[in-house]
Amino acid sequence: MDFEPPFQGACKSFLQNTTKINKHPEVEECELPVIDLSHLNFDPMNREKCINEIAEAASQWGFFQVVNHGISQEVLNSIKDEQKKVFHQPYTKKIAQSFLNLSPNSYRWGNPQATCLRQFSWSEAFHISMADIPSMNEHKSLRSTIEAFVKNVSDLAKSLAEILAQPLGIESSYFKENCPPRTSFLRLNRYSPCPFSSQVLGLCSHTDTAFLTIVHQDEVHGLELFHGGRWIGVKPNPEALVVNIGDLFEALSNGIYKSIKHRVVTNQEVERFSVAYFYCPSFDAVIQSRSTTDPAVYKRFTLREFKHQTQRDVEELGEKVGLSRFSFDRK
Ligand SMILES: O=C(O)CCC(=O)C(=O)O
Ligand SMILES: [Fe+2]
After folding, report:
1. Is residue 327 packed enough to be buried (19+ CB in 10 Å), middle (13-18) or exposed (0-12)?
2. Which residues form the Fe2OG dioxygenase domain (predicted)?
């Protein structure tokens, strides 16, 4: 098929000298906490209970699902349809810098810096900065679907961030001041069927950098998170969106909320799609651990410093090291 990136060629040398990654079929599936956001609009007691559930899930799991989230099924379905159309364009077209009129390197696949199979991702993605959406003029239906999705998902991200900030005593204006509308971004993901599914991951294990991420996954299983010392699968729930805490919120909350490692496994038969919205501050936003009682776990840093460190680690080690680079405990 002319839309597939040359995954096999790119990881051929790793496949020849690798031992199997320990995954499927041992991985169990779990029901992540499901939080009904309609309770936020009820009486103060119900609202308080809902806020506590969200904060509890963010600290125990770092991941949760939300229903009655305010994004219509129609918008979610059309994102998937549009995603399918765009990923099914010829590979040679997708790699052209001018495709979709996005910033350079918005289309990515595999992992050019991988040093071993564990770091390779059998998937492709478009990273779409909010600032790039207005220039997607030639692709009107993709653009308008993305705009409709972003309009809803950005409000949802801001409300969830403000809710999570409350128990930490962070002022409600923090996110408004630090996350201007253009600093967040979307990632459209496509996981291609993989003939080496017992060895190769769809998206290698990582934590997200953002304050928080909101994911709409389709009905195909694949997302797994590391919890309680083992990998567990997140059962797709068509009504729900998956929310996860990113590194910046873990740092801001002084380690109370957890940015958890997650990955996507491949399967041999069907393609899988997901769309992730990463709620991010501006590059110069200062991330400083907030706690009135405990000593700070993380040093103060800007997103720019964090990104530079990540870039260096990816170039030198093939993967991101993440928050531990900024921990006071680091040896
Ligand atoms: O595809 C998924 O379910 C998760 C995607 C993800 O973790 C990411 O894009 O960072
Ligand atoms: Fe992620």
Report:
1. middle
2. 182-281
